[in-house]
Amino acid sequence: MKVEHLKHHPNAIDTLSAWHFDEWSHLYPDMTLADFADDLRDCLPGAAIPATWVLVDEQGVWGSASVIEQDMTTNQDLSPWLASVYVDASRRGERLGQKLVRHVMAASARAGLEELYLFTPGQAYFYQTLGWSVLREEEYQGQAVTIMRVDLPEWLAAQPQL
After folding, report:
1. How far out from the chain centre does Cα 34 lie?
2. What confidence category does residue 57 fall into, taking pLDDT thresholds of 50, 70 and 90?
3. What HEC string does the chain produce?
4. What's the rounded Cα separation, in Å, for the pair 62 and 21?
5. Mean per-residue pLDDT for 42-68?
6. How far apart are alpha carbons 13 and 89 in whole angstroms?
7. Which of 38, 111, 139, 156 sees the fewest Cβ atoms within 10 Å?
8. C-alpha distances in angstroms, 54 versus 26, 44, 133, 151, 153?
9. At what angle do helices 33-41 and 13-24 cross, to 10 degrees?
C-alpha cells in the first residue's frame, strides 16, 4: 500500500468525493456531492495547500487525507487544516489511517508548513497517538468535536525514521 498525491490519481476523485460526502455531509450542510468533487479537483495542481493524498495499491484507491486552508465556519483564525482522513471500511484496522496521516504530516512539514489543525467528532485518541494535542472541545453543526493541533517541525524532528 502506497501513499501518493492525488495529482497522480485524478480518476479517484469520483470515489473519494462519494466517500467524503457520505461520511461528512452532515458537517457541511450547504455542500453538494459536486462541491466535494470540486474541492478535490482543486488539489490536483500539487500545491502544499490545498493538497490531497491517497492510499493506493494495484487494486485501487483505499483512502485519502487532505490539507486545506479552512475546514470549519468557526475557528477561522486557525489554518491550515488536516481534513478528510478516510480509509475504506473494508481496510480499517490495518493501520492504514496511521500511515496516511503520518505521510501527510511529513509532506506538510517538508513543504514548510509550521502547524496543522484538525477537528474530529470522535477520534481524538487516534490523533493523540500520532503527536497531536487537544486545543479544545466544542459543538459544531450540532455535534461534539475536538479541535487539535500539531507542531510539524517539532513532530518531524522526533521522527528519526522519516
Report:
1. 19
2. very high
3. CEEEEHHHCHHHHHHHHHHHHHHHHHHCCCCCHHHHHHHHHCCCCCCCCCEEEEEEECCEEEEEEEEECCCCCCCCCCCCEEEEEEECHHHCCCCHHHHHHHHHHHHHHHCCCCEEEEEECCCHHHHHCCCCEEEEEEEECCEEEEEEEEEHHHHHHCCCCC
4. 16
5. 95
6. 18
7. 139
8. 23, 12, 24, 23, 23
9. 130
* Residue 12, amino acid: A
Convert the pLDDT of each residue in 64-99 to its tens digit. Answer: 999 999 999 999 999 999 999 999 989 888 899 999
Q: How far apart are CA 38 and CA 13, in angstroms?
A: 9
C-alpha cell at 123: 477520534
The one-letter code for the residue type at 121 is: P
Sole residue written with cell 475557528: 75
